[in-house]
Amino acid sequence: MASHIVGYPRMGPKRELKFALESFWDGKSSAEDLEKVATDLRSSIWKQMSEAGIKYIPSNTFSYYDQVLDTTAMLGAVPERYSWTGGEIGLSTYFSMARGNASVPAMEMTKWFDTNYHFIVPELGPSTKFTYASHKAVSEYKEAKALGIDTVPVLVGPVSYLLLSKPAKGVEKSFSLLSLLGSILPIYKEVVSELKAAGASWIQFDEPTLVKDLDAHELAAFSSAYAELESAFSGLNVLIETYFADIPAESYKTLTSLSGVTAYGFDLIRGAKTLDLIRSSFPSGKYLFAGVVDGRNIWADDLAASLNTLQSLEAVAGKDKLVVSTSCSLMHTAVDLVNETKLDDEIKSWLAFAAQKVVEVNALAKALAGQKDQAYFAANAAAQASRRSSPRVTNEEVQKAAAALKGSDHRRATTVSTRLDAQQKKLNLPVLPTTTIGSFPQTVELRRVRREYKAKKISEEEYISAIKEEISKVVKIQEELDIDVLVHGEPERNDMVEYFGEQLCGFAFTANGWVQSYGSRCVKPPIIYGDVSRPNPMTVFWSKTAQSMTARPMKGMLTGPVTILNWSFVRNDQPRFETCYQIALAIKKEVEDLEAAGIQVIQIDEAALREGLPLRKSEHAFYLDWAVHSFRITNCGVQDTTQIHTHMCYSNFNDIIHSIIDMDADVITIENSRSDEKLLSVFREGVKYGAGIGPGVYDIHSPRIPSTEEIADRVNKMLAVLDTNILWVNPDCGLKTRKYTEVKPALTNMVSATKLIRTQL
Ligand code: GLN
Ligand code: ZN
Predict the structure, then answer these.
(1) How remote is the CA of residue 734 from the centroid of ligand 1, in Å?
(2) Which protein residue has the closest C-alpha to ligand 1 atom 9?
(3) CA 242 to CA 244: how far, in whole Å?
(4) pLDDT (mean) for 10-31
């Protein structure tokens, strides 16, 4: 009876670690307090898995911040600027790397594959000195052992570690990070020997980069790294864990021939094609860790279907070598359904969070071993059936409308230049029009109003009048600043996805369904469980109200379908694109209602379009095609004179610029200020962009107020590459997280810079 969990959420069922970390960082509690919370969390997680009957329980998947940073600490690869003087790395050096300190900035953070988790990017170069500087893996193993639980210590594998790193500042781009393998492997060996000495009989190496497109040189690094480690592996079982996508055939070959390795783990949820590879050849005598329980979503497993898959794999790997596992670490799903008191029983019966998934894994392993828990399987089958047939899930009208979209294209009838002309006749904007991205500062008072309205402590009338007052304040400020295209400031919104999800059918919300995003930060994605429809207008009242307060154009403000999809837990009973088309149809109705209400400029944010890009290049085209199509569906029906804006929170456009153009928006505003060059180089290379474009002229993530000169300089740089008549001037992103004392002077400078340049044209 073999069951395994790849990794487990660290935050705790009620985000205990988050609060402990933040209180420690604020100086409100001691290191001992923090350590106590961490120790308690670890022990409760281990005990929970052990009581559930899991055989291979992971350790070292806990982290104060990030597992890649933990590996950097293990290797002593602390960038020089943190002035670390050696010895075991303590909390202060560790958190300085993660968050920066008064005198040095933090290390860079980037997305962990295609998840919403962010890791701290190692900075390495030829002069990086590696020493064994964090014994965390060993001490956590011992800690569990002292509780009577033998665990499988988990390490970020050496090759993935290097492939996820970047060359340190000053190190040439051509520097081969993989050339450092020889320097880090001795430390890995040391760690492995210590773990063995402490009693470990299994070690798990996470090598998720194996699912990416790798070249022969990179694949060879896996072979040589594990050949080198083999001598340390004697007497140990070594598991190489992969996840997040299908593994390419070449990589599968390399993986299954690695020396000294006795077990392989695969994501069989996102990697459905991997099953064929396994079936066509699996090395004899090796363990197969079959990741059949979804680690990235919140749906209860279809146990009967998984059992079928597993039984078919028994024939391939052998009964005693098949281990039931999760598709990836459970840290990418919510923690425990037990704490959901707001969800009704029917929806709850369709869900499984991390704690429930542990039980599912074990139930499958038991069933394989001939000890099927009939009642548990029956209850699961009943829940699956109820989900399939529930009238809350299926809305035939929506199904039909979405099906009718397939195979046909949706575009506005005229070209963007024709439309821009028509719009300009109506809007009569100056050259280099100024605007902002949507939200204005959310004050404590404002949050209180929303909270009290939700808790029914204030009446609808009181709420509406408070929000109206806020909008009128925001409108007045923008008029005083002399901004050309105004926004209402989004005071009624807590979050750009939640606000829409709450008003759409087919969405559910959890009370504690938090998932770690980075460090102590968590997000609580909505759950899309059914066909999506829009019973009532969602934003029209507020946009109309705001427009009535000014003679200048007021932007309607919507979140686009792809972003709503990518920031939610999405149903797994139909393809993602179908769900996206349904959301697109709902947003389309909203767009058309805004237009009918006299709103002439409508912004449809696609902040997260790039985030959904699949890991493998071969799948990019398909994704981009339906994602861009979904966006176009939302606005293909408006008149030429209605100006459609979109906004994106990244500037890394090189590989997707043609899809961006294909979105066919009239104006696009882009986060840019931290990387002018990256964005502008796309256009310098000759990409013709006819639509309006507003690359952010200052960074809203920082409290710093940019000067007029600095902004003017930025705009001039853009003018060197982009046509005067298409350039817009705006900040990077929404202003929600800033203070008015920062926003007012920054926008004042933005407008003066623009006016100055207008006189020079
Ligand atoms: N309109 C949103 C805002 O200004 C956009 C936020 C975003 O791009 N993340 O807040
Ligand atoms: Zn943004």
Answers:
(1) 4
(2) 607
(3) 7
(4) 97
675 pLDDT higher than 70: no
Q: Is 626 annotated as a binding residue?
A: no
pTM to 2 decimals?
Answer: 0.96
Instruction: Give this complex's ipTM.
Output: 0.99
Return the SS3 of 102. coil
Q: How far is the C-alpha of 265 from the C-alpha of 247, rounded, in Å?
A: 11
Q: In one letter, which amino acid is 479?
A: E
Distance CA 83, CA 369 (A): 55
Chain segment 56-82, per-residue pLDDT in tens: 999 999 999 999 999 999 999 999 999
Tens of pLDDT, residue by residue over 364-395, are 999 999 999 999 999 999 999 999 999 999 99
CA atoms within 13 A of residue 122's CA, in its CB half-sphere: 30
Question: What are the backbone angles phi and psi of residue 591, rounded to the nearest 5°?
Answer: -60, -45
Query: In DSSP terms, which residues pair with 239 in a beta bridge?
Result: 204, 263
Tell me how far CA of residue 373 lies from CA of 220, 489, 753, 761, in angstroms: 45, 54, 71, 77
pLDDT (0 to 100) of residue 174: 87
- Residues 6 or more apart whose Cβ sits within 8 Å of residue 608: 562, 563, 566, 567, 649
Cα 282 to ligand 2 centre (Å):
46
Distance CA 490, CA 347 (A): 31
The reported pLDDT for the residue numbered 678 is 77
The one-letter amino acid at 662: D
Of 494, 505, 546, which is closest to residue 529 (Cα–Cα)? 505
- Residues 172-178: contacts with CB under 8 Å, at least 24 apart: 175/125, 175/126, 177/124, 178/217, 178/218, 178/221
> What DSSP line would sit under 691-747, residue for residue?
SEEEE-SS-TTS-PPPPHHHHHHHHHHHHTTS-GGGB-B--SS--TTS-HHHHHHHH
Does ligand 1 lie within 6 Å of residue 294's CB atom? no
Q: Which residues pair with 527 in a beta bridge?
A: 508, 569
The structure tokens 């969602």 sit at 538
Is 701 an annotated catalytic residue? yes
CA-atom Rg of the chain in angstroms = 27
Q: Which residues contact 612 (CB under 8 A, 6 or more apart)?
A: 114, 562, 565, 566, 623, 627
Residue 733 annotated as part of some ligand binding site: yes
Query: Ligand 1 pocket check: which of 116, 667, 668, 733 to mutate, most ligand atoms within 8 Å of Cβ?
Result: 733
User: Is the C-beta atom of 649 inside 6 A of ligand 1?
Assistant: yes
Q: Is the CB of 439 under 6 A from ligand 1?
A: yes
Pairing of strands 287-293, 322-326: parallel
